[in-house]
Amino acid sequence: QVRLVESGGGLVQPGGSLRLSCAASGFTFSRYSMTWYRQAPGKEREFVAAIMSTGSITNYADSVKGRFTISRDNAKNMGFLQMNSLKPDDTAVYYCTNNFNLWGQGTQVTVSS
């Protein structure tokens, strides 16, 4: 089945960390760049971070730069988003996409004390 599936979300206190995963199946994951987006309640979906197909180049939104790290393991068809120093403003549903034709269903991240 051709799909992307996110996991790893949850409830965390401000200052905490989470690692999101994006599992790819049914297509050649290593041929595509990957991007993480997020959407908070009442807001538009926004760009978080992107990584080229080989993992050699990454890009981040200013709001997460220095706190989040995007990575991938093409051998395992997996993408990751390590999120540190989380803030309440990071609360959102996080989605991964292959920047072509697939989106995951999203994983909820809630940052609250």
Walk me through the topology.
Blueprint: E1 3-7, E2 10-12, E3 18-25, E4 34-39, E5 46-51, E6 58-60, E7 68-73, E8 78-83, E9 92-97, E10 107-111
Parallel strand pairs: 2-10
Antiparallel strand pairs: 1-3, 3-8, 4-5, 4-9, 5-6, 7-8, 9-10
What does the model show?
The protein has 113 residues and is mostly beta strands. The chain is 0% helix and 48% strand. The strands form two sheets. The chain has a six-stranded mixed beta sheet, with no helix packed on it. A four-stranded antiparallel beta sheet has the order 1-3-8-7, with no helix packed on it. It is globular. It starts with a strand and ends with a strand.
Give a quick precis of the structure.
With 113 residues, this protein is mostly beta strands. It is 0% helix and 48% strand.
Keywords, separated by commas or semicolons:
single chain, 113 residues, mainly beta, 6-stranded mixed beta sheet, 4-stranded antiparallel beta sheet
- Tell the overall outline: globular
Strand order of the largest sheet: 2-10-9-4-5-6
Mean of all residue-level pLDDT scores: 97
Which runs of at least 5 residues are low in confidence (pLDDT < 50)? Answer: none
Beta percentage is over 45%
Q: Give the SSE string.
A: EEEEEEEEEE
Q: Find the count of extended strands (DSSP E, 2+ residues).
A: 10
The biggest beta sheet is recorded as: 6 strands, mixed
Distance between the termini: 39 Å
What Rg is obtained from the alpha carbons, in whole angstroms? 13 Å
Secondary structure class reads mainly beta
Portion in helices: under 10%
Count of helical stretches: 0
